[in-house]
Design brief:
Helices cover 49% and strands 12% of the residues. It is α+β, with helices and mostly antiparallel strands and 354 residues long. The chain has four domains: 129 residues, Beta Polymerase, domain 2; 89 residues, cca-adding enzyme, domain 2 (Orthogonal Bundle); 74 residues, no CATH class; 53 residues, Orthogonal Bundle (Serum Albumin, Chain A, Domain 1), CATH 1.10.246. The strands form five sheets. The protein has a six-stranded mixed β-sheet with strand order 3-4-2-1-9-10. The chain has a two-stranded antiparallel ribbon with strand order 5-8. The chain has a two-stranded antiparallel sheet with strand order 6-7. A hairpin with a 2-residue loop joins strand 3 and strand 4. Helix 6 crosses helix 8, helix 7 crosses helix 10 and helix 14 packs across helix 15.
Amino acid sequence: MDKIIKNVLTELNKNGFEAYLVGGFVRDYLLGIKSYDIDICTTALPKDIYNIFNICANNYGGAKLIIENYNIDITTFRKDAKYSNRHPLEVKYITDLKEDLKRRDFTINTICMDKDENIIDLLNGIEDLNNRTIKMIGDNEQRLEEDPLRILRAIRFATVLNFEIDEKLIRAIKKKKELVKTLSKERVKNELSKILMSTNYKKGLELFKKLEIDKELEIEYKETTYTKDLIGMWAQIKVKDIPFTNIEKSNIIDITEIVKGNSINNYTLYKYGLYVNLIAGMILNISSKKINQMYKKLPIKERKDIDIKGNEIINLLNIEGKRVNEIYEDLTNKILNGSLKNKKGEIIKYLKKE
């Protein structure tokens, strides 16, 4: 165990409190996956945690520590009462570890570890980890009703870890699938992004179809090619009302246009830039080396590279300024297709002739 994590657990123990690593970090540790997101559950009350580490509260009544690469969330053992809009209406602090673990989603996320690296498995999480199974804790339908995000999380874990979803949970998801429509678009985007960034993403997309989640979320996709860039993945999927930034929207539109044209050439490189063309190249199976070489050889990369100024064109041809854009567009096309050299003398000769 990294000494940073061990020190946090030790500090809680020294002050008389139980403290355990729980959830994703322990799961990934047992699977041989390196993780930097740390969840610690403890008998220490929030005020105790704040005093010990001299930090402020997080949104969950616990505390967050950021030490080097680690994001560490420390939360008091608790029992959740009834839920409303994905959030428990009441939280009761407790001292029973098993009761705290029962409120979590899947058994594989309930395995704990103490500061001496002893594993505590109270809900058979290791058995399900060994069987590579995503199994819900408690009544499947009730837990999905409490928090429909668990539907997408089940698909995400099955995708990223290449596990299978337990049959009881499959049946519950099919029965409660319409609940995903109540989730915020930001939550949906976040979970879908994690699925799409997995090299095993096709399994996730297959599960969406199998469980009919694609219909509920109005997602459409056909053949897709993996790209290391998330925007490249989103560009291959039609989805309604996902909150993309303006830059993300613009890049998705541009990538889609290039892919539709099934070609990367001087004109696409000039119009859309190197970044967007590299992503489109991943989808079209065109090597990044070739695209970079093409980009370096571009005679012009933006309009200001054309070797004549707008006022020079106006004076030369004795035209109105509003015609300059039209002429620049013509010059751009000629220079990019190689029929005109980007030399002022050649450009002037061409303009006079035309």
